[in-house]
Amino acid sequence: MQPFTYLRPASLDEALHAASEPGTSVLAGGTTMVDLMRGGLAWPTRLLDISHLPGLADVQTDGPVLRFGALARMADVAENETLQRAYPALVESLQLAASQQLRNAATLGGNILQRTRCPYFRNGVSDCNKRVPGSGCSAVDGEDREMALFGTSESCLANYPGDWGTALAAFDTAVELRSAAGLRTVKFSEFHLPYGEDPAAETVLRPGEIVTAITVRATPAGRASTYLKVRDRQSYAYALVSAAVALEMEGDMVTSARVSLGGVASKPWRSPEAEAALTGRRLSEAVSLEAGEAAFKGAKPRRQNAFKIELGRRVVARAALTAAKRI
Amino acid sequence: MDGSIGIPVVRRDAAAKASGAAQYAADFPHAGTAYAALVTSKVARGRITAIDTMAAEAVPGVQMVLTHHSLNEGLGKETFAMKGGHMQSSFMPLTSDEVHYAGQIVCLLIADTQEAAEQAAGLVAVEYATEHASAAMDDPGHEEEPMEKKAIDVGDALAAFAAADVSVDATYLTPAQHHNPIELYAATCAWRDGKLLVNTPSQWVKGKQAALAEIFGIPMEDVHIESPYIGGGFGSKATLLAHTVLVAMAARRLGRPVKLVVPREAMFTVGSFRPATRSRVRLGAKKDGTLTAVLHDEVGQSAVIDHVAFPATEVTARMYASPNIRTRQATIATDVNTPGFQRAPAEAPGFFGFESAVDELAIKLGMDPVELRVRNEPERDPVKGLAWSSRSLVPCFRRGAELFGWSKRNPEVGSMTTPDGLLIGMGCATATYPSAMAPSSARVRLSADGTCVVYCGAHDLGTGAYTVLGQVAADVLGVPDELVRVHLGDSTLPSGPVAGGSITTGSSGAAVHMAALAVRDRLLAAAGDGNPAGWSLAGGQVIGPDGHGRPVAEVVGAVTGGVIEETADWKPDALSDDQMRAGLAGGMAFAGPTTEKHASYSFGAQFAEVHVDPLLRTVRVARMVGVFACGRIINPRTARSNLAGGMVWGASFALLEESQVDRPRARFANTDLAGYHISTNADIGEVVVETIHEDDLVVNPIGAKAVGEIGIVGMNAAIANAVYHATGTRVRKTPILVEDLL
Ligand SMILES: Cc1cc2nc3c(=O)[nH]c(=O)nc-3n(C[C@H](O)[C@H](O)[C@H](O)COP(=O)(O)OP(=O)(O)OC[C@H]3O[C@@H](n4cnc5c(N)ncnc54)[C@H](O)[C@@H]3O)c2cc1C
User: Fold this and answer.
1) Pick from A40, A138, A230: which is nearest to B618 by CB?
2) B98-116: pLDDT as tens digits
């Protein structure tokens, strides 16, 4: 850790102004940021605490667009009754993440900006292109059980770990970004970047920008949705494989399907292949397994993580069957 | 309240711990403290070719930077605990440019603030000449080093195995694991007038005192170790860790107290860990299940810098009756920090393989696994023919089976399901743990205000020693629990043994018992004006020959000084007086579990029910039942907590715990609590614990056998056996992961 200046702006305008200074990082719930700083993975010279700013924690769940203020807490949103009824996948993705204590502190905006749990990145020592660009990727010949199957490159195999982000990817989601220069809105599918040459670049967030809200276009598919997470332990662990599935159905016929995958990709991963395998079909265990198979067609397994393809096939299948029961 | 033996007295330290009043090592304030931070090695083997500390030294507030260049002080020689000393390792970092393992301390920084020390640590640039290293036992190129002295041979096991009607031959693996106590390693060292005070969480205050005296060349009484509370130790805080020496040295040089709290990641390398093991188990039996051959070949991970072994074979060889027994022990040296004691160090990994193999044999025989174990119950120790001081394994199995509902188990694989379609698996295993004993002193003081105070340099790791040792005194003196005080965890107290090997209650309890008896004798004598005849103690009263009582406090008040205080030195019979003296001076002096006449072990039967999702193949431990016989239970509440805690750990061992090795770089990979998984509440279903009373006065005068570690032993196998019953997949390694069952 290095010395830094702690800033506590009184308003969003003041915050946006302060954010434009080089070396500034935003502090929301701090559950990721403090870890990164203590671990020598982030070294801001100015820490801009926005956690108390008014108006940024509002949540609207009526109307054609759901709107989640960036400072809404994971625990609070998980208790939103409309959401529990109409978008169980979103609620479950929050309930199954981290621990109650962390969810009490962590914000939705901070959540989509959490960074990979790849041990080679986190340990502060191993060669890692994300931490020290050009140093190499230790996972290439190292422990790769937790590494991604999609969206990786030879310079980075790390996994995007977030549950909420994975569930959001199944919907028409957008992120509102503000800076001193104004507002822009980015589609969630374009917010995170797959790893290319420079795996340190993870999102399109620009210096000086603050996430103010996440929006989701309302859909009846929200009701028949679920988020299924398989992990090594029952609580307080990241996904080995997870899937969000949201369906619209006529009888047992799937008319529209949304499928996203977690624990297996460098970013929240939408699976049009699985969606196509479900759409227009009568849902059965066999069809759901086919969808699971389709979801992992393009997977690039390493030595220890190939099992995630078989596990993932079953996770998608189970999630589809569970979602269908909620029609 | 009655606080005598057998009462479930609530832990004396509970309120202080729950309210935050309890002070742990890092909580003791010292005026003018400077703070330390570590730099550890990135590579696992080689030499430091350059170490640039300029930028670190320039950080405002930095007071001292210690590297192998600057640590030129002559230190007294102290050895590795396994060689008769007290150190966790025989290797002392910063004494040369050599690097022997990843995460080795290569630089210590001291600054006015914690922040400055950490910042400076981040600025130290180290260059290495790296050599090939291996931190995993099964990397190619390793050779086994046999330990001939550990071989056990009874009869001709190889021939009997070859001739057996039914046999099992299988190999089982357990990984490296780390203790990961919640309380981090910490040391605050302060010198005053040439005397050293150390606040450090310790399972062995006397040993650390002796070691630091030796290292700094000062008398033992000039070293004071304070460790009233320990936030989990599990064996990791028994021996002296090198960083404590470095901090003490820095404090002496600086002339200021210095404090170091080791960060979580460094916890994986600056202390010890449970080494990986490989067990080949061969069992041969007649068709009726009578064992004819028991063979166990165990290989344990050791370190290049220290040869260490934790042989389970000494215990497995004695588990079941068999005319032919053969065990072999070997080690494989790897480039790691020295492995060490971790709760049931030998037994927990060794019994995973051994008790899994017994289950495999039961299946081959088509026999109930409980009945197979009962059939092979030995009358006497099968290796030397010694009498058991007590052994109630069969009653444990019978009661456990009843509590668990074992009779409802359909032995057919995959035949049982829950109402919501999960596969049910039920398994069992035997648990055992040696009941060794060590010398201990204790002082008991009865005062005119009615209080009874116990002083003993033993340790409470959250296990209940504060409570239990007070009960032993209260039992003799009839003092109500409210008036009992207990002081532990301080090197100025009468010497207690290392908190290891589950010996504290038996050993220090025996010393407290002895001191309390001496106090009682003086009390009765005082009441009878020098003649105790006819006087007795009951209900807080001293009763005279005429049946008239006087309150204890009144009798004590009449004694000159108003207190009756006695100190006792207790030793197990098998040790000589010299061995006792060495032990009380901070040496390692154990007697048992086998002596010339007896073999003393605690025993238990463990049962597990797992639920397996038929599609996803995830495993959940729905239920665990453990019935144990550990002699006399001093406090059923604390005993239950230890046993249940051990079983929870066993579940964690079976399904979660592994220190993964990044093989190309020979480092532990998952060095934080997000990556190193231990059970959460959500992972553990119902836990049922019972104990069976035994009168065992061979083991010690209070009849207490080992409780602290047995709970973990066998639980891993019981779960693996249950997983097999649910799925038909025999997983011969831990942790059992979802990919093993897909
Ligand atoms: C032990 C542990 C276990 C966890 N387990 C899980 C899990 O199982 N599943 C899961 O999904 N997550 C898990 N998490 C991650 C957790 O959900 C995130 O840390 C949390 O959501 C981040 O939110 P925060 O408000 O604390 O963000 P902060 O820590 O304050 O910030 C995180 C990052 O986002 C930036 N930031 C925050 N808010 C804004 C904003 N409004 N605009 C611009 N930048 C911003 C910060 O600068 C920082 O880079 C776990 C975390 C921990 C520590």
Assistant:
1) A230
2) 999 999 999 999 999 999 9
pLDDT of residue B74 exceeding 80, the answer is no
Q: Which helix (H) or strand (E) holds B594?
A: none
Candidate list B360, B690, B709, B739, residue with the active-site label:
B709
Quick check: is B118 catalytic? no
Whether the CB-CB separation of A170 and A212 falls below 8 Å is answered with: no
Which H/E stretch holds residue A294? helix A285-295
Helix (H, G, I), strand (E, B) or coil at B486: strand
C-alpha to C-alpha distances, B547 to B480, B535, B541, nearest whole angstrom: 21, 9, 11
Nearest to A320 by CA among A233, A267, A261, A269: A261
- Chain B residues with CB inside 8 Å of A125's CB? 40, 42, 667
Residue the block writes with tokens 């020693």: B465
- Tell which of B615, B658, B680 to mutate to test the A interface (max A CBs under 10 Å): B615
CB–CB of B714/B369 below 8 Å? Answer: no
| CATH number listed for the domain at residues B344-435+595-741 | 3.30.365.10
For chain B, where do the domains classified as CATH 3.30.365.10 start and end?
Answer: 344-435+595-741, 438-584
- ipTM for the assembly: 0.97
The CATH number of residue A234's host domain is 3.30.390.50
Residues on chain A touching B739 (C-beta within 8 angstroms):
307, 311
Q: Model confidence over B433-476: pLDDT tens digits?
A: 999 999 999 999 999 999 999 999 999 999 999 999 999 999 99
Return the CATH fold of B438-584.
Answer: Aldehyde Oxidoreductase; domain 4 (3.30.365)
- Whether residue A119 is preceded by a cis peptide bond, meaning omega within 30 degrees of 0, is no
Tokens of B75: 């230190």
Distance A9 CA to ligand 1 centre (A): 20
Nearest beta carbon to residue B122 from set A40, A117, A318 = A40
Taking only Cα atoms into account, the Rg of chain B, rounded to an integer number of angstroms, comes to: 27
Q: Using CA positions, which residue lies closest to atom 2 of ligand 1?
A: A98
Share of chain B above pLDDT 90, in %: 97
